[in-house]
Structures are given as C-alpha cells and as structure tokens.
Design brief:
Blueprint (H helix, E strand, L loop, with lengths): L2 E4 L4 H27 L1 H32 L16 E10 L6 E12 L5 E5 L6 H21 L1
Parallel strand pairs: 1-2
Antiparallel strand pairs: 2-3, 3-4
Helix pairs in contact: 1-2
Length: about 150
Amino acid sequence: MANFIYVTPNALREQVRRNRRRILGIGLPISGGAFVLHPILGILASAVALSLWSRQKIVLHGAEGEERALGHPIPVPGSLADLPAGYTVFNGLEVPASADGPKREIDLVVLGRGGLYANTLRLAPPLTVTEDDAARAIETLDASFAEVGSAR
C-alpha cells in the first residue's frame, strides 16, 4: 500500500466552510438592510449572496473529487489507495512560486520509484499542471540533485 503520511486535511473543504461563514455573516445582513431600503435592492443583494453561495458548490465538488481519488473516507477500487508500496502521495504540498516569492499549493502529487534497480523517480502531477509549473518542478529537482551531489 502507498504511503499516505503526507496527506493533509482537505484545504478546499475548509475554504468552502470559511467562505460560507462569510456569506452568512456579511451577505445576509446586507440583504436584510437592502430590503429595508427598497425591495428591489433587497432582491438584488439576495441574488448576489445566493450566487456566491452556489459558486462554493463547485469548489466543494473539487474537494469531493480529490477525496475520492485518495480513497477517503472509504478506499475505492481504482483510487490512489490501491497504489503499491514504494509510492508516496502528497496533498496540499506548498512549494515556492519563485526563488524569493510566496508559496503556492499543489493539490495532489504522487511520487514513486521504479526502474530495474529502483533508481528512477516517478512523478505524477495533477492533470491541471501548467507548463510553468512543470518547468519550475524541473528547476527545483535540478537544484536539489545538485545540492545532494555537492554534499557527497
């Protein structure tokens, strides 16, 4: 079985909870106040709050898909839980966007080793990886290998 030690709680689900609390705490009082001023303003403010609420469903579906891929809470056949030993799954991995820039989160990464003598590093990034992300990953791996090589 794959190593899931680096899988963290789903950040998307937490983001939805946080945003929905903001919508309830800010959107509903604004909608109520707008109804006092004019009914049409109240309807418009309510429509905006409902639109923001429904957008959170898209993020929530993304969280559910991620959990399904990981096989949480119940392992699903064909999920990452079926990976053999030697693979490591990372979730919510924070990597620097640039050398001195802010960090950004990569959602789901699978690392494994392969080859005849287990000397090959296998990477399985998410399907949404961009060319810039791939170039940054290659630069990071090159720097890491150079650092390890110079330490020997």
